[in-house]
Structure to design on (747 residues):
């Protein structure tokens, strides 16, 4: 088949007499060099006639007196479906069916023209630029104070970008979904501006208030991209959208005005990390099926709000809610770890203002709010970033770099990608008042730590939110996230979790961690010998959404006795609460539930199938009192780089001490001190009673505040004769019952 076409080349390499090199491999092999037919404002052009319906081509010529040939990344492939006139850019493989726009200005100049119209309260206009060139990208859709709306879109390879929106009465036609659309007479062309690194990569347009059609309930929009995108041209969602319409895969993005909500948390201050007692929960599962919550509010932000207002967390005593992912995800009634975008709020949970009210209510009840950010991968089912920018860096284009076992791996470490993810964090801080973030799967196998360093710099160091809580799931734990210790990331302690599970299941856990006494001191002393530099670097947990409950794990080693399982579940809870670092429990753990991993519906995990008569209430009330005990006493939450050296901590029992102090046995004990307050903690993981001597070094009296069965106020403890006296600093023949734990306070 003979084809005739014109090929335009911008010749930005400034080649002398650039030559079009054409070839076809395989059947019908052909190679040919063609000189330019002429030139125009775009560059040079070539009028080509070939007896081939498809072929490859690139450009070459002389540069600075030497032969220059574009590299293989610029190899282009033509087929007749691209038409009879195409445009190309130097060094890029992309072929354009329309003449690419040229930049019409600098985005910084645009910003100067509208900066006085930017809302200042509870509003974030994206401006992250880790290059420190201070590029106010203004990406996304934003309503300004004068009623005008601005739209920004990052795309360094597009030829043209259009805005389609109902602001001018246009509804994105159904027949265009996922297809090319020729009906563009009511599309609004966006201008191309120099943005990041002073390159033309930001498309921007402003719609004045008088040009917006009145009576629109929700302003919806999409972008139509021509060239530089997978599929040549197509509809795309805005990566910066705050919310999708209900049927987001096919419908549009919706403009949200974050300034309309009236906040009441003005006196709130994010607590210091040492004060955190974290409760991890899933929005779906936490209230699903709860009869005292309306069906419409179950599994939503509103359901959690009701629990907060009813005082559930006040009574439990936790100080922070760690919400599993709240951004739009593909799955329904799932974990949420298959994100579609990063600025949006999950529609299944409610409206953006519902989420704001949740945070507002939490703050007014003394609860910090931490949200889960999944920056390592995206959903494979619905992925608006996939092939959004076709630069041949990955099968998925600019935003991706390989894959993980959960989905396509984001290209973290790439500046413009990191800018987007940091913007997401800033938006949730500014517009939703969240206190911080837990970052999912941050091991360097899945996520470039450059991003985490930049988040620290952009949010804490630059005082965007200096007290932001930053937590990393990093398994196994890597020490480079400590920074200076006190200001580093807090990490979910894999060492603590795995050792606790090994001790309680009485066997090897995950093929590496055994139930020997070795290492017990490390996990309770904030894993200083493993990865952390400061107590701020550690989150201790014995259950999470990813892990089986303690009872479930115990049963995996054929331990089914109901009493034993209860004692071990209590010992796990007590260990989590008293270990140096910050404790975290997973929803349902306060009841001693028996559940498998990734089980997010509390109502599906009771009763315990092997203990049908088990009563959850005693475990809950004991947990509640235990958590509030930590909350009350500073000596139970000491912090620092090395509390032993600082005189805040002494070991009393351990496998490395003398025979009467726990040598070679699974017992551990220590004394902590904060000002005049002193606490003594004793734990026994053996399946039998252990007799020990307690050596404090000075005469003192100690009152039992808690054990594996109860938590006692001082009056009850004194009158129950729960007092030990250490004459000359020693109490001999103290008996630690099997699977037990104690907290004593000096009186």
């Amino acid at each position: 088949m003979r084809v005739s076409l014109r090929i335009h080349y911008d010749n930005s390499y400034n080649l002398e007499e650039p030559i079009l090199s054409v070839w076809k491999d395989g059947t019908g092999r052909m190679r040919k060099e063609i000189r330019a037919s002429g030139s125009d404002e775009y560059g040079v052009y070539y009028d080509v006639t070939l007896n081939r319906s498809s072929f490859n081509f690139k450009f070459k010529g002389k540069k600075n007196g030497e032969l220059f040939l574009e590299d293989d990344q610029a190899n282009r492939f033509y087929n007749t479906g691209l038409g009879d006139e195409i445009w190309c850019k130097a060094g890029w493989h992309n072929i354009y069916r329309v003449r690419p726009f040229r930049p019409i200005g600098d985005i910084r100049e645009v910003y100067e023209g509208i900066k006085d119209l930017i809302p200042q309260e509870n509003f974030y206009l994206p401006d992250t630029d880790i290059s420190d060139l201070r590029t106010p990208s203004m990406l996304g859709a934003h309503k300004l104070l004068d009623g005008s709306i601005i739209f920004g879109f990052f795309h360094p390879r597009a030829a043209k970008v259009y805005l389609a929106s109902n602001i001018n009465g246009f509804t994105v036609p159904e027949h265009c979904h996922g297809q090319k659309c020729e009906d563009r007479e009511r599309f609004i062309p966006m201008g191309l501006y120099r943005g990041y690194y002073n390159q033309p990569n930001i498309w921007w347009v402003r719609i004045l208030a008088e040009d917006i059609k009145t009576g629109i309930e929700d302003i919806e929009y999409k972008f139509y991209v021509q060239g530089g995108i997978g599929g040549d041209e197509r509809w795309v969602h805005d990566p910066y959208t705050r919310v999708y319409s209900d049927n987001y895969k096919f419908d549009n993005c919706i403009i949200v005005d974050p300034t309309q909500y009236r906040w009441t948390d003005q006196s709130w201050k994010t607590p210091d990390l040492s004060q955190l007692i974290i409760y991890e929960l899933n929005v779906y599962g936490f209230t699903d099926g709860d009869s005292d919550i309306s069906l419409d509010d179950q599994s939503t932000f509103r359901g959690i709000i009701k629990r907060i207002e009813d005082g559930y967390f006040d009574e439990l005593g936790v100080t922070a809610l760690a919400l599993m992912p709240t951004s739009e995800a593909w799955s329904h009634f799932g974990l949420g770890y298959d994100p579609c975008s990063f600025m949006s709020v999950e529609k299944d949970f409610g409206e953006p203002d519902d989420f704001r009210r949740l945070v507002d209510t939490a703050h007014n009840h003394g609860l910090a709010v931490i949200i889960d950010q999944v920056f390592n991968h995206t959903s494979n089912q619905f992925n608006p970033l996939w092939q959004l920018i076709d630069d041949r860096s990955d099968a998925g284009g600019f935003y991706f770099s390989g894959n993980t076992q959960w989905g396509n791996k984001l290209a973290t470490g790439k500046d413009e990608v990191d800018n987007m993810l940091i913007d997401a964090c800033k938006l949730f801080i500014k517009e939703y008042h969240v206190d911080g973030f837990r970052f999912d799967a941050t091991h360097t196998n899945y996520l470039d730590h450059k991003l985490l360093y930049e988040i620290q710099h952009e949010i804490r160091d630059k005082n965007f939110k200096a007290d932001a809580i930053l937590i990393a799931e990093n398994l196994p734990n890597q020490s480079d996230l400590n920074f200076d210790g006190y200001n580093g990331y807090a990490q979910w302690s894999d060492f603590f979790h795995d050792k606790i599970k090994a001790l309680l299941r009485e066997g090897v856990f995950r093929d590496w961690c055994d139930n020997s006494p070795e290492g017990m001191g490390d996990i309770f002393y904030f894993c200083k010998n493993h990865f952390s530099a400061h107590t701020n670097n550690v989150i201790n947990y014995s259950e999470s959404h990813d892990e089986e409950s303690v009872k479930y794990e115990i049963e995996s080693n054929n331990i089914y006795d109901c009493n034993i399982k209860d004692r071990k579940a209590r010992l796990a809870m007590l260990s989590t609460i008293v270990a140096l670092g910050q404790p975290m429990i997973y929803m349902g753990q306060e009841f001693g539930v028996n559940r498998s991993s990734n089980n997010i519906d509390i109502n599906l995990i009771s009763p315990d199938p092997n203990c049908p008569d088990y009563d959850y209430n005693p475990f809950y009330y004991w947990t509640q009192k235990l958590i509030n005990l930590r909350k009350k006493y500073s000596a139970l939450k000491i912090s620092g780089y090395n509390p032993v050296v600082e005189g805040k901590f002494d070991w009393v029992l351990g496998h490395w001490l003398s025979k009467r102090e726990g040598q070679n046995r699974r017992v551990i004990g220590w004394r902590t001190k904060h000002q005049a307050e002193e606490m003594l903690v004793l734990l026994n993981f053996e399946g039998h009673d252990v007799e020990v001597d307690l050596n404090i070094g000075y005469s003192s009296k100690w009152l039992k505040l808690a054990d594996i069965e109860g938590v006692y106020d001082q009056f009850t403890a004194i009158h129950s004769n729960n007092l030990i006296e250490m004459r000359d600093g020693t109490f001999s023949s103290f008996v630690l019952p099997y699977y037990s734990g104690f907290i004593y306070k000096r009186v």
